[in-house]
Amino acid sequence: MTIRPILTEPNKLLRQVSKPVDGVGVEEQTLMNDMLETMYAAPGIGLAAIQIGVPKRIIVMDISADKTKKEPRYFVNPVIKNKNIIKAKYEEGCLSVPNQFAEIERPNSCEVEYLDYDGKKQLLKADGLLATCIQHEMDHLEGILFIDYLSKLKKSMILKKLSKSNSTRIIV
Ligand code: GNR
Ligand code: NI
Hints:
Blueprint: H1 26-41, E1 46-48, E2 58-61, E3 73-83, E4 87-94, E5 97-107, E6 109-115, E7 121-127, H2 128-141, H3 152-171
Antiparallel strand pairs: 1-2, 2-3, 3-6, 4-5, 6-7
């Protein structure tokens, strides 16, 4: 397994719409292994392939609080089948928007159809953090970041902070 660099905003690739894969083969499984290792190392609770520069509709996730018991989840070609009309607010962050957080409102539960690590079709009913995370990751597949839901002012403040910390990183 290999840890790969995570792309951060602003980066055009993060705005690309990812393409469905033909199925789950060794190539996709290797990518998922690398994505999971990259996510754990970050650390994060989810990662979309585009965040490491691969425009494929593949997501990995682990929302388990106890990091000694890993509960990896793999979603290939995920499709949201149902969204609750009831919404919930969560404080979201993103590895591609480092150290920035904001409350985002999304449907509080959803159903998602996808292929798992073995290419088997699955249907999952998600709520709470899992539902939030799935929707956050599915947005990445469409080139959407959580900051896109904020007011112009809040979004520009975050982008300004990011560009400042980016230039600091280069100096140090
Ligand atoms: O690590 C992450 N935490 C998180 C917290 C609240 C809502 C969504 C997330 S996903 C994020 C990792 C990430 O950027 N995935 O794309
Ligand atoms: Ni993200």
